[in-house]
Amino acid sequence: MANLSQEKRQRMLEFLHKIKEEHKDDDSILIALGEIESELTAKKYGLVWEQHEEAVDVMMRDNIPVFTEDMDREITCTAGGVYNFILEGDNLHSLRLLEKTHSGRIDIIYIDPPYNRGKDDFVYDDDYVSAEDSFKHSKWLSFMEKRLRIAHSLLSEDGLLFVSIDDNEQAVLKNLLDEIFSEDNFIITMPRITKKSGKTTGSFSKNHDYVLVYTKQNRDIFVMEEHIDPAFQYEDEWVTERGKYKLNQTLDYDSLSYSASLDYPLTVEGETFYPGGDIEAWEERQKGNHRRADWAWRWNQKLFDFGYRNGFVVIKRKSDGSARIYTKTYLNARIEKASNGDYYIEYVKRTKPLSSIGLVENQFSNDNAKKDLAVFGLKDDFDYSKPVELIKRLIKNHYNKNAIVLDFFAGSGTTAQAVLELNIEDGGHRRFILCTNNQNNICEEVTYKRCHDTLTTYEYENSSKTTLLERKIKISDFKDSTIPEEIAAVKLEYRGQYPKFATEIKDTYLYVYGVTVYEKYTGIPANLKYYRTDFVSKDEEYLSDALLKHIAEMVQLEHGVKIDGSKYLMILDDDQADEILSHWQDYADVRALYVSRNVLFTTEQNALLADTEIHIIPDYYFNFELKEVGETW
């Protein structure tokens, strides 16, 4: 069928070309016609919106964003360890600077941007965007598009993006992300429970929002959780290696396609068994009198002998003396066949992917986020903060336990707490970078406070749970139930082994856990630096000197270190080099030098530094800006 829009557009373009020819000597008309032509030939599928410019964009026309460290807010709990960062200021300015230090280096980005509810959640150019604003969606898209394009450039090839959003902008956000990250890198949109009882509008109660998931390039970056299936309820002497087992399969079965080679008498412990348990029926089958689908063993004789010797077989007897043969299905082991025909035991870890509806459990709700905040005295400050367990569950999807995690809508600082707790739980060394503005003093009084307290005073336990009771429950169990007595009996039995217990009902099963506490922390040890966004005017008389004052912040941010004059040194000119190296014997603990490209070491100095890690301070920090004003080439 004809593309009518294209035909109409072509007619209009032909008419424009005629007008151009008639006014070929009038530059102003030609410029106007060129703009019309550009609009006609612009993208015709995908998101189209009115582009809006923010005050933060205008600010960068005449000013260069830089970071200035607030030394008083530095926290050092692990001497010599890497640093995490809070970047105070408009996140667009922070992202522009992160492009200089972390392009292609961020492993995980989680953001919880404004949902644009038309209330008091989305501030654009210092004003709340109301529901009545006819440009509310285009303002939001202009705002998000700039930041998400930088986010894409920051992610590593194995990078992973999570974005929380609700119905107000979910549809357009999906389109925007498809355009920036490509549809091929879209993984899933996951519903997340917000609260059990939501505000009712019409016939529906709004109880969920979403998490959109995208990769940068590589889709094979996800790790799956170990799967503990309640059906595996029995233990034997191999439980340590093989895990628990279940007995849900008999060795004989009424097969879909009868196999004579698997229909044989099986002698075990002096007793002979026949498939189906009926010797007369077996004798008839041997005469050829069998159905298309009839009784046989699932295993051949060789496989049975191997399974029996290695504990994969159980003979279960009834009270009348009859018996059947069952095979064990272990959680973490199975029998495999080698290329030479022999059998062996393969040990595996059963895993399960995060379900597409895995975030609808109550632990991921806003109610739990409020409990998290209450620990820090911030209970009433946020209505829509996300719980720590949500961020932890998302982050640990990525294989890299040493990931750099960025949150440029940091809000209350949940991502920082999640990263630090997860490191304790799985032995990781992830670090975080948080970006947020200081509207209503949020960065200083909320984000920083929560990070400060998490590092210094937060009471945290590293613990594990052991299942002491698991049983399927039905609604009828709650009628004259003895469940409380069962739970109490389990706790009484194990009270000397576990300092605390936990119970839950999940997927129609009752669980009672014994909790083993490995370590208790008063503050999770980590390091933190606090930067503010500042500006240097492009009209500065000595621009390169003004920018040089902020180089240390960029070096520290890029490498996660502190330029302390002892372990980490910065050398910006030859005089500094001569001064430091003339007293090199006093710098026994040096781990790295950060050196300006303009510094030239002598042969003697190079010999002194032969075993020292040296990083050249890169041109890319502010080279573009200096070229703009003609201070470099």
CATH arch. level architecture of the domain at 64-223 and 402-457: 3-Layer(aba) Sandwich
Radius of gyration: 33 Å
Provide the CATH superfamily of the domain at 64-223 and 402-457.
Answer: Vaccinia Virus protein VP39
Instruction: Characterize the quaternary organization of these chains.
Output: single chain
Total of helices: 19
Provide the low-confidence segments as ranges: none
Distance between the termini: 55 Å
CATH topology term of the domain at 64-223 and 402-457: Rossmann fold
Strand composition percent: 25-35%
Number of strands: 31
Largest sheet: 10 strands, mixed
Helix/strand-derived category reads: alpha/beta
> Which CATH C-level class of the domain at 64-223 and 402-457 is it?
Alpha Beta
Shape: globular
Mean pLDDT: 89
| Helicity range | 25-40%
General description of the model:
The structure is a single chain. The chain has 633 residues and is an alpha/beta fold. Among the domains are: 4-41; 64-223 and 402-457, 3-Layer(aba) Sandwich (Rossmann fold); 461-522; 562-628, no CATH class. The chain is 31% helix and 27% strand. It contains 19 helices and 31 strands. Strands 1, 2, 3, 4, 7, 8, 11, 23, 24 and 28 form a ten-stranded mixed beta sheet that branches. Helix 4 (91-102) runs parallel beside helix 5. The radius of gyration is 33 Å and the shape is globular.
